[in-house]
Model the fold of this input.
Amino acid sequence: FSYSHFDTLNSIKQKSVSKNIVFSRADKGNSVVALNTSDYINETLSFLDNDIYTPFNKDSTLIFQKELKK
Done:
């Protein structure tokens, strides 16, 4: 990176903090999107409120890890 790239990245970072912006990886492709923080939170909550997902009563990470090692 050149110094101008660092200046650009610093400028974007400063603006994102002051403007309440979140940067996230896009669903498709190799790109980044900038979203309003409240929009990002609302989209995430609506995604999690979908009836497709069932919450676990306990952490099942060890069970899955043992299955993967078989």
Observations:
- The chain has three helices and two strands.
